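re: ur question from yesterday

yeah so i grabbed the chain u mentioned. its 497 aa long if i counted rite. heres the sequnce exactly as i have it in my notes:
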Amino acid sequence: MPILRVKNGPQRGLEIELKDDNLIIGRDESPGGLQILDQGISRRHAEIFRIGEMYFIRDLGSRNGSFVNEERITEELLRFGDEIKIGSTVCAFEDRRPSGRAQAKAVPGNLDQIAATTTIQLDLMDDLAADPVEEGHESRDLQVLYKVAKTIASERDIKGLAKKVVKLAATAVGAAQGYMFIKHPDRGELTLAASWEKDGKGKDAPMVSRAIIKRVLKFNRGVLTSDASTDDRFKNRGSVVMKGIRSVICAPLVAMDQICGVIYLTTAKISQAFSTEDLELVTTVGIQAGMAVQGITLSLAQEKNYLELVSALVRAIEVRDPVSRGHSERVATYCAGLAQALGLSRARNRRVQLAALLHNIGLLFLDPAEAAAANEDAEIDAKRIELACELLDKIQGMSFLVPAVRHHRERWDGAGYPDELRGEDIPLEARIISVANDFDLLIEESASRGEDLATKEAVNLLTQRDPDSYDPQVLEALLTAHREGWLYKPQERVKVS
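ran it thru and got these structure tokens back, copy pasting raw so excuse formatting
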């Protein structure tokens, strides 16, 4: 049962159970009201009222104002633990359970009775499950959340995710502009990850209020204001005045109780002001997007750890065999261009690059004489491959690279090693490394003879010299990647430095 507990003054300790739909607070005595004899309180100072299972406080035009958590309000959604200050009296909004322990839980109900000019905040950590709402809103929300979930499941790039989510949320609530800001994991500053404009024209700078964003970050709450220019909290802010900011929704991106960014939607037309249902939807989208951003961030951090390990191993190989210095890096770059030409996904592109960087790791376990002869002696080269696969198989998180490394010396016609695979029985990643590896060796062999073999000539020579050894599709991709410039500056490129 929600209660209002007086925390100071002559009536300290007084508890009022909020059984009725409304409670008037003021100096005057009123039936079912709370009378507080405080000179700083107006006769009818404020009202606490209920809509469904939600409780709100509304200032009744008092002389000194009403405050929730030290912020002056016009009308505010209450959550358990909030402190209400009127005059010099402080009251706490609490939940009295049979066990005597307060448990915060607020379930949104039907909010149709709220005036269009109401300014409301929703606590992000509250239960977002709602009582049945209008069929139109319910249908819209389910569709949007489904689309956001599909986007999260398929997107592994933060900016790509942000762009799609902002467009979905903005379109759903009828926003004119939408932005998503992501917090830098180390510096803590917000950077713009995506923007969306209804007219498609875009603007030089985001039409946002820093004051609104700071409030969201400070209180971990989504903010809705029907008209920021008349909202007591924001109307005197320069950005609100200069940019003509009107109706705004700003919701945190949250995962594991940590804010990792905000989603900010705005419209300049008061007639199209956002509703509380819109705030609930965007807040839920913010939770979904926050979890996705954190997941992508953790994945990138793990990938960075992999690359640091790869970097150390590649450097160790090159110290042992200076002749091959830079070979693995170049092969990885060529593989990235080939994968791009073949239309592989970002994840698969980076997988083949990692395998290319490590395809020579077996040289670490060969003596210098064997390492020098590996390119000329198939038996020694097979030993190199075997040793590489044994090492990768033992390193946690690296075993997925084994098939590409093991089979990069197989040939399309079945004349390769170590397993004499042919055609499409050879993993695609291995077929890509095979072409990239031999392409680089061809150029380096020419250089060792003092010949300056142009890359275009090397491409033509490799595709013509022994076409039965390579996948025709990958050879065609080599030509495409060279022609488009992807062979040397691919879009998806891992870096080990």
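noticed a couple things. The longest helix spans residues 276-320. also The first strand starts at residue 2 and ends at 6.
anyway ttyl
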